[in-house]
Design a protein that fits this description.
By secondary structure, the protein is α+β, with helices and mostly antiparallel strands. Helices cover 28% and strands 10% of the residues. Bound molecules: zinc ion (ZN).
Length: 78
């Protein structure tokens, strides 16, 4: 390994900063006002092919509640 220690610490600091921004974006849970289903970004929605770590805001516009089929507009931020 030729990497000087200073290079490595700089890289890991940047990674931490990026991680923090992403985590703040995705941590909001949204609840379906029709049936009470909670969309948890940490889990995503496997049945609809939504990967874990997908924020509610970045879900496709045609995504619907997996329990009752309500559109995104029927969800409220928790
Ligand atoms: Zn629902």
């Amino acid at each position: 390994m030729d990497n000087p220690p200073s290079e490595r610490s700089r890289a890991s600091k940047a990674a931490v900063r990026g991680d923090r921004v992403e985590r703040r974006l995705i941590m909001d849970k949204w609840v379906c006002t029709i049936c009470g289903y909670v969309y948890d970004p940490a889990k995503g929605d496997k049945e609809s092919g939504v990967k874990p770590g997908t924020s509610f805001e970045t879900l496709p516009d045609d995504w619907v509640c997996p329990d009752c089929g309500a559109p995104k507009s029927d969800f409220e931020k928790m």
